[in-house]
Amino acid sequence: xxxxxxxxxxxxxxxxxxxxxxxxxxxxxxxxxxxxxxxxxxxxxxxxxxxxxxxxxxxxxxxxxxxxxxxxxxxxxxxxxxxxxxxxxxxxxxxxxxxxxxxxxxxxxxxxxxxxxxxxxxxxxxxxxxxxxxxxxxxxxxxxxxxxxxxxxxxxxxxxxxxxxxxxxxxxxxxxxxxxxxxxxxxxxxxxxxxxxxxxxxxxxxxxxxxxxxxxxxxxxxxxxxxxxxxxxxxxxxxxxxxxxxxxxxxxxxxxxxxxxxxxxxxxxxxxxxxxxxxxxxxxxxxxxxxxxxxxxxxxxxxxxxxxxxxxxxxxxxxxxxxxxxxxxxxxxxxxxxxxxxxxxxxxxxxxxxxx
Length: 356
Known about the structure:
Protein name: N-acetyltransferase domain-containing protein
Order of helices and strands: EHEHEEEHEHEEHHEEEEHEHEHH
CATH topology of the largest domain: Aminopeptidase
CATH superfamily of the largest domain: Gcn5-related N-acetyltransferase (GNAT)
Number of helices: 10
Region (Disordered): 1-23
Number of strands: 14
């Protein structure tokens, strides 16, 4: 089936209107504009360790057709140049906005409105790629948070970014902690559903694929479990890239004391060395987890708010010839004309609808 084509006098509901910014996948002819964007400002301001390097994502995007990180560029006289980097996290049908680099335009009087227009274009573009949700780690307040909320992003979970230098001094628990295998994803998913608030479950919409070890979005992913009576009580997922590591920790409230030994064992097995930077995303609605990490030498760096935005996916219409044949078939059935064709499968519902 050929893709749907619009006439010039038609307007497409999934295309931005005149005067709105347009985002395009990074192409070789956009590379000269990257020099100008290098002087721009990342309004999200996330630590560089939490996202893949822009130059690496740009090179892979130009050479490979499918990649875990994508770059979209926009150059508009009114809104200025912008660059949005997304990664497939926490699932393959989700995008996490890792960077939002902008340069001021010549006629930008209200930057919040300009950022909102670019984000709305990013949401439209995500729907055309089949993405169901867009995620972002936003500042708790300020113009950036306002722009994202105007674009439809809904904050649903406050977080604290914590950082530790090198391996923590806690003793590892090799007897009670083991490395996650591929068949443990269901047990981890049950723990996630048990300790996570229901609104967060709906907003994140994670699946078992989120807890599988392996490689994902440029990270080397390894999981570690602490079990008791054939049930997972605590879990730590370590994402490693060079000398940077990101922890995702969850534990049953009754097993919060297992966190120090679990984290120490996970970092020892992951090969964390002196000078490595270890980050942890700690939800504020998990009591006791922040205190357990502080006992290992982690310190709070900044507060963030996890926000999500649902997308509207484009539905391809039927081909014109088939739609015309169906209309003719409906008229024939309504008139009582015997119909014998290869479209009997479509004739059944039409006959029932006509009789009703």
